[in-house]
Sequence to fold (83 residues):
Amino acid sequence: MLFGWPQNIEAILELSFARLTSRRERAEEELKLRVVDCEEKLVELGKDIDVFRRKEVSLQGRHLRGDGGFTDPQGFLIPIFSL
Fold:
């Protein structure tokens, strides 16, 4: 039994290596899914930013009133829902 310990350790090391390999592969797959989700969110945020940029350009020359409405340079009211 005393001289059998190297075989026991070898079996334990092989099992540990297999477990670590399995966990690494699972972690890699989870990370890939998180990266895909993150990229999708970035695309959606980019679309939102483009919408805000377009609204900003369309609102140039118009002034925000205290009640949340807009007026053009001549002072006429511009309803928000018409933008």
Notes: The chain has one helix and three strands. The two ends are 85 Å apart (CA to CA). The longest helix spans residues 5-59. Residues 10 and 16 are 10 Å apart (CA to CA).
